[in-house]
Amino acid sequence: MNEDKVERRSFVKTLVGLVATAGAIPLLSTFDKIYASANDTENELIGGKRYGMGINIKSCIGCGRCVDACKRENNVPRDPYHFRTWVERYAILMSGETKVDSPNGGMEGFPAETSEGEILRSFFAPKLCNHCSNAPCVQVCPVGATYTTPDGVVLVDKDYCIGCRYCIQACPYGARFFDPATRTASKCTFCYHRLSKGLLPACVEVCPTQARIFGDTLARASQLTRFFRFNEIQVLKPDLNTRPQVFYAGLDGVVR
After folding, report:
1. Which helix (H) or strand (E) holds 91?
2. In angstroms, what CA-CA distances link 135 with 53, 99, 251?
């Protein structure tokens, strides 16, 4: 670990200590954990970047534009079974029951609830590949077709993929599918072909409420690091230690 990284980590820890008495410790300790994880020596990347996505649950309106843009950009089958990203609607009923639906991945939006009087609250949760730093799909691939790029994006090399589906079974987020056209595993790539041109992922670009935020988690100042600083951040299934690079704000405990 070089001196610059030591100084940055020292700065964050000092900042956490200064604000502890002001009642902001939960927020900043969360940011500190993300920052420390991204800068972990065993997790260093050659490219000097680690791409990640932030999702603000409170800002998502369930319009489905992200799903449609993803399918168009990445030639995902237009059927209701294959998605690189999708949106789920959660309705918490007065009885305590949780109803979850995602008609056609949320691509055409969501129909009005017929039992609104019974709903305590509801929200939308966009989902996609979490581009884990400790990705199970990479570990189980027998031919090395699934791999992690120097900037932290998990990809599938279709020329090497043999369609064994091991990675699909290993993904704890249900984010992979078998592409019937290519006969290989497929998933979200953060629109890596767009990143190489300096563009944002298609789903981020079309979001009308900026519910999706994309950037470099190692950057000192960016829209994504601001998202980390000013929100209480959570990830899906943290107990699995997959170290996801998709971070949520306003995530409810019923979302898995």
Report:
1. strand 85-93
2. 16, 29, 22
